[in-house]
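User: For documentation purposes, I need each entry recorded in a consistent format: the amino acid sequence on its own, followed directly by the corresponding structure tokens. There are two entries in this batch. Please keep commentary to a minimum and don't merge the entries.

Assistant: Recorded as requested. Entry 1:
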Amino acid sequence: MKRAVVLLSGGLDSATTLAIARRDGFEPFALSFAYGQRHNLELEAAKRVAAALNAHEHRIATIDLRVFGGSALTDEIAVPKNRDAKSADEIPITYVPARNTIFLSYALAWCEVLGAADIFIGANAIDYSGYPDCRPEFIAAFERLASVATKAGVEGTRFHIHAPLISMSKADIIRKGMELGVDFSQTHSCYDPASDGLACGQCDSCRLRLEGFRAVGLVDPIPYAAR
């Protein structure tokens, strides 16, 4: 099996992406980040998902994006609630500056150590919150960068950044995950969970997730403070 590094946040999208990597014959090395986010519930979810989907290894890299702030996820800024995440024109305050660029750079470094040439990321450009680093042109640009930014690339390795969800709706992602045996009750997507750990049901991430489950005629299996 070819090795691949899979970025794993613990959410619905990254869990499905990990399942796709396994389906496609890769030996997945899951990579998560303690980056100074508002809570560690997603990291606990990532551990569950990595174990359930048989990741060969799961590592959590610790970095501190709170040094820069600038996002509701890494600064003392309120998380927006009850907005229409798909119709808003502005990039929301939950965007973490350059986060996917940073995460992919770490994944690229681990690829070099592993002798791997493939990275999987759950970026999505359809049902998402308008983040610039979830677009196809960003994925393509980083793939080009990898070939000139690494020893392996200079020596002839052609890196591939796989974004299998990039053109899928949230409903389609849920269907694909279920087809591949993902247990979505083990995932966590909320930006701003309640003190008891319940998903808020009102942030962009919760609303997109709930809409996806409604579209497939199912009830989201995780508990919410409000649906």
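Entry 2:
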Amino acid sequence: MRKTIRIGTRSSALALWQANWVKDQLEQRWPGLTVELMPVQTSGDKIQNIALSRIGGKGLFVKEIEEALLAGTVDLAVHSVKDVPADLPAGLTLSVIPRREDHRDVLITRNGETLDELPDGTRLGTSSLRRQALVLHLRPGLRIEMLRGNVDTRLRKQREGVVDATILAAAGLARLGLMPEHSHVLDDQIFLPAIGQGALGIETRGEPEVEELLQPLHHVETALAVTAERAFLRRTGGSCRTPLAAKGTVHNASITLSALIASPDGQRVIRGQEAGASETAEQIGMRLAERLLVQGGREILEHLAQEE
């Protein structure tokens, strides 16, 4: 068994927290193993003044790390699953999914207002088309402002008045211990989360000795839910350029997947749900995607493609 493992990670505070969590878990389980972090600055981190939907999508947060993994510079990569495109480069696999953190979104306002209580004209900052679409669907009178940056940066911009409110992932806030006082966790039945939100994905080259080290971190129920969500993403051909959402829930031997396809202006939100045996997680995601595409999702996605 190898003595040293190198982890590729983004250099943001949240990404380093996640990579350090994996490092600690490995070192606790395998005495004598040395785990090193290898921070990589990705294109998504370098370009902060342009919406992700205009510069290539969330794949920009993993591209350079995957290149390091393929080159052998690192032995594994730790990602937020929601940043990982549906299709991985040849030779790489998302082999381990640890237990999921809270998958919901959190609204942060100046004075503790809920989404319903915010006055029309309130500037809500987000760079997520999914969050934009759902906010405008529920509150068309609000103003969406493009807000990029890591968790700290977006919280600071909200405090400084660049925007009046923002929405962030509960998982990131919890992991960093940064849950602000005026926070409201949004109902995940209405405000469906991003695909893979709250889950970590460990990407490898599939080397047996690395897989053996990582397997104790794998959480089967989370992996099944993420499999259904990512199958939905893959079948729709979606990316962060398309307002998609999906949430898988595993109970006993069954899985339920809720998902939506929306127009960026929030005027059309097509929702659906599919359930079945947990071992058919991939098929559940594919079936639900097919159904929502037929019900109008394909029209939304084709219209977005024409605008690119």
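Summary note for entry 2:
Residues 74 and 239 are 26 Å apart (CA to CA).
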